[in-house]
Amino acid sequence: MTAHPTRVCFELRVRPELVDDYVARHTPVRAEMLAEIAAAGRRNYSLFLGEEGRLIGYYETDDDAAAQAYLAASPIAAAWEAEMAPYFVGLAGRPDQAATPLTEVFHLADQLADAGRTLS
């Protein structure tokens, strides 16, 4: 039986006056950084931007500690995160290492599986 991936959600705050530039920097992200994210084992990665610069990120991975360690040691990721750091409010350290994690309280597929049902 295959283990479920770890689902990770986090929050950051983009400086409101820099939101447009932040979005432009992600449209698209440089190919070498995309490759590093994938090599770290993160997949199904999304960022969602809300009012006043509220940024919610989500990804799945089989081993989040290993993914974090890989990116922490990556010169490509270090350069990207150094470029991104000025965009964030109240952040100590690299954005990819210092984001506020959110606690998952509901996942439909898990609850259906626990109840003996499947998605159709």
Describe this structure in words.
The chain has 120 residues and is α+β, with helices and mostly antiparallel strands. Helix content is 39%, strand content 22%. The mean pLDDT is 93.
Give the beta-strand count: 4
CATH class: Alpha Beta
Structural class: alpha+beta
Principal-axis shape: globular
> What average pLDDT do the residues reach?
93
Summarize the helix and strand pattern as letters. EHHEEHHHEH
- Domain count: the total is 1
Helical region count? 6
Q: Which band does the percent of strand residues land in?
A: 15-25%
Write the layout of secondary structure elements.
Blueprint: E1 6-13, H1 19-25, H2 31-39, E2 43-49, E3 54-61, H3 64-73, H4 75-84, H5 95-98, E4 100-102, H6 108-114
Antiparallel strand pairs: 1-3, 1-4, 2-3
Outline of the structure:
The protein has a single domain, classed as Alpha-Beta Plaits. The protein is built from 6 helices and 4 strands; from the N terminus they run βααββαααβα. The longest helix has 10 residues.
Notable features of this structure?
120 residues, 39% helix, 22% strand, alpha+beta, Alpha-Beta Plaits, 6 helices, 4 strands, 4-stranded antiparallel β-sheet
